[in-house]
Fold these 2 entries.
Entry 1:
Amino acid sequence: MAPSLAIIVKLSVYCNELQLMSLMTNTPISIYLHIPFCTTKCTYCAFNTYTHLETLIPAFVEALIREIQIVADGAEIRLPAHSVFFGGGTPTLLTPAQLGQILDTLHQRFEITSDAEITTEANPNDLNLSYLQGLRAAGFNRLSIGMQSANAQELKLFARRHDYATVTEIMPLVRQAEFKNVNLDLIYGAPYQSLATWHDTLTRTLELAPEHISLYALGLEENTPLKEWVETGRVPTPDDDLAADMYELATELLGVGGYQQYEISNWSQPGQASRHNLQYWRNWPYLGLGPGAHGYANGVRYATLLSPQRYIKALQTPLERHYPFPSTPATVDEVQVDRANEIAETLIMGLRLTVEGIDRAAFQQRFGVDLVDLHHEVITKYQTHGLLEVSDSCVRITQQGRMLSNLIFRDLV
């Protein structure tokens, strides 16, 4: 006898839940939380950040906690998560108690692994020993500090609120608070920046001995003061060739300093590669929470409402329906990722991993096809030119290929 429609529907739902459970339990998720508040806005910043809205912080914390609860309820299973990252904006405008309240909710609703990497971004001038100890007590075990430069003129150009002395003064307190995993962000390729000032910044950064260093080539983003200043001739146009020289200098100095370049823009001491970064580059699932955050989970790429006010209002409104994972009332721009796009995204991001590259066996298990067979002509071309390295286990970009990575990515997708 044929099964009834109700039984078919139940079986379909059950199979979907099993698929979700298998995916998410075999690959723990990462969780990104966007804190959109800033005291001042940097001249290069195009992120979804706002000044003079600090009065919204208490309502925002409540809304973010509500968003966490709705996402977790939609999953219908307690998902494992092995990294949590508070970005911004300036997360350290929240008190340790507020950040701890958010972390407590994550622990209640997700299976945060015992060895999870839990990071917050921080401005150096927002930190003191008491605040740092509060972060540790709340459960944070990693800091990502926006140093950006050791040069006073460059920091002034960026409209940063700190100087290099502030970073040197805070690092001993960071260690005293028992943070054993610290990242420092640096920017290169800026107007007026020279190879000599960049060399000095790198040298001083190495003296601080962070476990991780992230280097970002300055981009002139729309609707930023720095882009306007360049276009109107107020400051000189950045020199791409000089930026390339800066990148090569960094590769040399950080390598000599004992750091491994595990991704095109990221270096770490042995065993200290950022788990959260790797989640992105491996194209594994992550949740994006908070105004303007982006996420990728359950085969869906999505974003949340940009405006903090609209975000808060959406999450204060009583729920009128059940939201399927990973949606919430604040979700916008949901796109179901098909197989072709998932492959393309996996290639673009995976080739950024300079040591690991793309694991051929893992790629075949995920997509049912060998990467080299799928893109034989393109891979062979760049292998011949010394830009890609191909072995039985992986395909990865060479040191020479890192400077031409965008060209390779375009050809592959």
Entry 2:
Amino acid sequence: MNQPAQALHETHRAESVADSAMLYMEDICHDFGTLRAVDHVTLDVQRGEVVCLLGPSGCGKSTLLRVAASLEELQHGRVMIGGEDMRSPSGRNVPPERRNVGLMFQDSALFPHLSVVENVMFGLDRLPTRQRRARAMEFLDKLGMSEHASRHPHMLSGGQQQRVALARALAPGPGLMLLDEPFSALDARLRDRIRDDTLHLLKSAGAGTLLVTHDPEEAMFMADRIALMKDGRILQMDRPENLYCHPVDPFVATFFGDVNRMEGVVRNGRIDTPLGQMDAQGLAEGERALVLVRPEAVRVVMVSEPSAAHGDTHVIMSRLLGRSSLVHICVHDQQNREFHLHSTMPGVFLPQENQRVELHVNPAQVFVFPAE
């Protein structure tokens, strides 16, 4: 396909995505003074889909969500919700209350003077009172909060308040849900339960959802697709398994957990590392390479009794993490230089200090990039 035809094809494809998406954000830039918080970002959220904006603090993810909600002025680019442009013909942004959007934040922001059921009824003002109460109670029941309907927010735990906030956001039937770190203030066990309930309710409601989080595990659990951001840009947007198993950048690989980092030079399509020779994965001959290996890709096999001969590959220490065990290992490269690496083994696997071992590497979890 020639370049003009290719460009036309891409334009038609973008327009098709924009028309079908519940949310389409195109070429979004947003500045705070001289700081560029969002830098030419394009993304879409399809109907019934959960997309997670993932990244470290300050990467621009919350700003991008606030632009979608019209809580921040659209400075550059285009926002479409349900196929409609959110900038009016006069050039003004369509305000939040006219966007068919449900909002939920880290702070539940419930009205303290209203009861639980009155908080959920608040966004249902277009319905008759009896229908408003019935619909509010329906969503409270789905979240296990109907028995608390007459209470006020200060009488609820943090997790209960978040359930009420979710019911309030979903009760009007928005086509798009925007959630900004909604679970981050909850303790770990409660957070797991509430995000599980939230995911089921979002899917049953059929709303498109854009969720901001800094937690990779939460994004993997919640998302159909993840957009990983750094410095205002999306580095990779794909299904969770593709970001984890096929990262396009070292930052993507390392953001999802610990990795063993090694460097080497490409020789005959291979790279010598302390874990053996690795495929260069397309890097040029003589190029310096960064090799990243996930700990779960390193399988430890005990080969003899513990030994004081530290020239062999041996265990430094091992720790039980619950469902897995972390093994610290000493290995040596071809020049007999010492390296310390990690292996994550399933279940209880606690070899003794100085235990001699062999290491077997799963090449599917080895990632090779040009060295910085």
